[in-house]
Specification:
- This protein is an alpha/beta fold.
- It is about 30% helix and about 15% strand.
- It has an 8-stranded mixed beta sheet with strand order 2-1-3-15-4-10-8-9, with helices on both faces. The chain has a 3-stranded mixed beta sheet with strand order 7-11-12. Strands 5-6 form a two-stranded antiparallel ribbon.
- Helix 2 (about 40-50) links the parallel strand 1 and strand 2.
- The radius of gyration is 31 Å and the shape is globular.
- The two termini are about 25 Å apart.
- Mean pLDDT is about 75; it is low at about 15-25 and about 450-625.
Length: about 650
């Protein structure tokens, strides 16, 4: 038996060695050095870890776009990441003093290069406002208002233009715009959007500060008035979220806000809907992006060859598009350019870099959303793969003509699945809808209306069963038969999330609570007590829709407690309770990300936390390795005792002899 076990162990180890030998990459390990965009840094860090098992070793320093381009220009990088291209004309936004110090001047790279799209995202507008002790989380603004805030025309949060966009007057608080003090790709993307949407406002502002226009874009925001300039995206985000941030608003990458569950402005798009910079909204917007020289006739000799053209993004009239959307580049060597590739680069590095790009633009984009970015859509993927074919030593695994072997989440073959699957905005996000809006029959209505029932006032409403919804006020008496009380939604067993019942309710429970400051709806139940008298009701915030209630005795006392800044339950199709038994399944949706963050059943507290599952393709031999590993462990446990017992018996037998 011992001999058999030993042979089994030997076979297991031999098979594992052979199988592991097959898993070694077909390419030798290759190291690539790069610097650049801090905005793309988190994504590049994830993707370089993903390709490490393939023998591709990437050393990346997120030193900033300008620093990355400088390193490329002196031949110190194998590639670089930048939110903006090489500067082909003087950046006048920095002012004459900056040029005297050497910043903002024309960049003249001496090595051949291509631009490859890598990360996409929306420029988000983080802000901090508190009203009545509650954080404002549902601010919405038009592009014109945003531009006037950052050009000093609107200086107080109680400005009528803000109230007209938002739908409610805000307190008299001075606005403190937060801008970047360093050369920034975020600044470049934001200023280009302003220049192409409201050029008179933006160029008038630039001329007032620097005596000259800021051109197509600037990486250096001209500061004025109460503006505060800070260095770095993370510093901007942390300041706005900090104790000194009240009244501030700044532009930043959405990843910082999403990671901290911090509110950002819903921006009005050309289709007339207020939208957030979610992954799907940005991807939809960027389907209108164009690459010069790929999607038009820009010649290779043009200094703007292969640069992005986002004019169509700014005017995209898809209701889902987020207007301030853009993407960043990898700057990679090009073998057939007028200039030579960097001398440090060779075919071996080109093989590794082109395979890295194939992964990033295809399977890697499946991780973009969880990292706080948007997946690159098909038109930009094709442009990027085409440029990878010009890298010396190209070994890309993706056909640029068909993209058939590119598992990117925005398309399947020729079909743009992002346009098919991206969710449509709520009717309550349309321009002109009130803040207490709710959706009835697919149409937006004011939360002050009622349907399916009525609020009870002054006395008792007779009946067997009923349902109610809406917002209003009730006083006195008790409602019988399960009718919905004013100011919220009462269901037969449990109230729907986000509403508040006033007056009294019979045969079920009054919904109290509302939404926490995090934007996640919560629900508690207050059972009715027989024979008690309803208290005077206040005005409820936007109510949810009640379902048919049961029949019971006199109702108990409803309570009013709702967050005025929380999204209305009536707007949320994912927050609902089953009728009658109080055991309805409730889903809580984060209003900033649109993701289901928790579920609960009847208890009023969400207990089941949802998780995003990312499918990671594995090798087909993974299960075999797992099985062999188990056998090896089993052999390690069994064989030594068997051998020990055999040796012991032999010694005992020898002693008796």
């Amino acid at each position: 038996m011992a001999r058999t076990a030993a042979m089994l162990l030997t076979l297991c180890l031999t098979a594992a060695a052979l199988l592991l030998g097959q898993a070694v990459p077909a390419f030798a390990a290759t190291s690539l050095n790069a610097d650049g965009s801090s905005w793309a840094g988190p994504a590049i860090d994830q993707w370089r870890n993903d390709v490490n098992p393939l023998g591709i070793k990437i050393n990346f320093s997120p030193s900033g776009s300008a620093a990355g381009r400088s390193q490329w220009a002196i031949g110190q990088n194998d590639f670089t990441a930048s939110d903006v291209p090489f500067r082909t004309q003087q950046d006048t936004g920095i002012g004459q003093g900056g040029h005297d110090g050497g910043s903002g001047n024309v960049e003249n790279p001496v090595y051949g290069y291509s631009y490859v799209p890598i990360t996409a995202g929306g420029t988000a507008f983080m802000y901090k406002l508190t009203v009545g002790g509650k954080q404002v989380r549902d601010l919405r603004l038009s592009p014109k208002t945003v531009v006037e805030i950052f050009t000093g025309k609107i200086t107080n949060w109680n400005d009528p233009k803000i109230a007209a966009d938002y739908g409610r007057a805000l307190p008299s608080i001075q606005i403190t715009p937060i801008v970047r003090s360093d050369g920034s790709g975020a600044t470049a993307q934001f200023t280009r959007w302003m220049q192409h949407t409201y050029p008179a406002d933006w160029e008038g502002y630039c001329k007032g500060i620097n005596n000259v226009p800021c051109g197509d874009y600037t990486e250096f925001f001209p500061r004025s008035g109460r503006m505060m300039a800070l260095n770095g995206s993370d510093v901007v985000a942390n300041y706005i979220m900090g104790s000194a941030g009240e009244g501030t608003i700044g532009y930043d990458e959405y990843a910082f806000a999403k990671g901290s569950n911090w509110p950002v402005v819903k921006v009005l798009n050309p289709a007339g809907y207020y939208t957030l910079p979610t992954a799907s909204n940005v991807a939809v917007a960027l389907t209108a992006a164009r690459i010069r020289g790929v999607d038009d006739n820009t010649p290779a000799s043009d200094p703007n060859f292969l640069q992005q053209n986002l004019d169509g993004v700014y005017t995209n009239n898809d209701p889902r598009s987020y207007p301030v959307s853009s993407y960043s580049y990898l700057i990679v060597p090009r073998k057939d350019a007028a200039l030579p590739p960097p001398p440090r680069f060779n075919d071996e590095k080109g093989s590794a870099l082109s395979r890295f790009i194939s992964y990033v633009l295809c399977a890697g984009q499946g991780k973009a959303d969880e990292l706080g970015y948007s997946p690159i859509p098909r038109n930009l993927v094709r442009g990027g793969i085409l440029q990878s074919t010009h890298i010396p030593g190209n070994a890309s695994t993706v056909d640029p003509n068909t993209l058939a072997n590119c598992p990117n989440p925005t398309f399947t073959g020729e079909e743009l699945t992002v346009l098919k699957n991206a969710p449509q905005p709520s009717p309550c996000d349309a321009k002109g809808t009130p803040l207490d809006c709710k959706v009835e029959g697919g149409k937006p209505v004011s939360g002050g209306t009622t349907s399916g029932g009525s609020a009870s006032t002054g006395g008792a409403a007779a009946g067997g069963s009923g349902s109610g919804s809406g917002s209003g006020s009730g006083s006195g008496g008790a409602a019988t038969g399960g009718a919905g009380a004013a100011g919220g939604a009462a269901t037969g067993g449990a109230g729907a999330a986000g509403g508040a019942a006033t007056g009294g309710a019979t045969g079920g429970a009054a919904a109290t609570g509302g939404a926490a400051n995090t934007g996640k709806a919560t629900t508690t139940k207050a059972p009715g007590t027989t024979g008690s008298t309803g208290t005077t009701g206040g005005t409820g915030s936007t109510g949810g829709a009640g379902t048919t209630g049961g029949t019971g005795g006199d109702g108990g006392t409803g309570a009013v407690a709702a967050d005025p800044n929380a999204p209305a339950a009536g707007n949320d199709p994912n927050a609902a309770a089953d009728a009658g038994d109080g055991q309805g399944v409730e889903e809580v949706v984060d209003p900033q990300t649109g993701q289901v963050v928790a579920r609960g059943r009847g208890s009023g507290t969400a207990t089941e936390v949802a998780a995003d599952v990312v499918e990671v393709a594995g090798r087909p031999e993974d299960w075999t390795l797992s099985t062999l590993t188990a056998l090896e462990l089993l052999a390690v446990v069994i064989v030594p005792p068997l051998l020990g017992r055999r040796l012991l018996r032999r010694r005992q037998t020898g002693g008796r002899s």
